[in-house]
Each structure stands twice: as structure tokens, then as C-alpha cells.
Amino acid sequence: QVQLVESGGGLVQAGGSLRLSCAASGRTFNNWRMGWFRQAPGKEREFVAQIIWSDGRTTYADSVKGRFTISRDNAKNTVYLQMSSLKPEDTAVYSCAAGLYLGAYNYWGQGAQVTVSS
Questions:
Q1: How does strand 58-60 pair with strand 46-52?
Q2: Please, which of 15, 43, 62, 79 could form a disulfide with 22 given CB 3.0 to 4.6 Å?
């Protein structure tokens, strides 16, 4: 059974940085993709970033390009989201997700709260 556990959320001032971690377990992820999504109060969940586990290709939402970086550590089976130049509008619950490379995201973590104060 795939398990995803996020950590690293918190409160930060605008302009600051945070790093989220997503520890994945339960299988090998060579043919999988890992993503970060976020949901702000009263809004729908939105895509933030994705990484293809096998070759490290990344994709970002326009709203975070140039500020956020997704990466993975194969040895630790962990995906990271480095967030810089944070804005109040980045405030949300951030969740990591996993799915087969050409499939849907079928597995989700519990979420981590990120709050950016102005």
C-alpha cells in the first residue's frame, strides 16, 4: 500500500521560504509521477508542480514558476517542494500525490498547512 507523509509546513512572512517534504513508501516509484497540489479556503484544489520519478522532468503551475522547485531524493524515496518568495496568496493546505506516469493521481498525503503572513 502506497503511503505519503508530508512534513515541513508552517507560518512564514511574505518573501520568506519553506520546504515541504513528502516521504513515500510501499513500492518502488520508477514509473510514477509525484505531484504537489494545494487548496486554499473556499477554493478548489489546484496543481502546483510535478516530477517524473524516473528522469526528473518537472512541470509547474504558472503561478509558482520561478519561485518553487520540486525535486526528489531517490535514496530516501522523498519528494521536496522548495518554496521561495512566498506570497500571502500561497497560503493553503499543500498535499503530495502519486500516480503512474500516464495515469491519474491515486494516492494522496494528509496535507500540510502553509500560511504566509503579509
A1: antiparallel
A2: 79
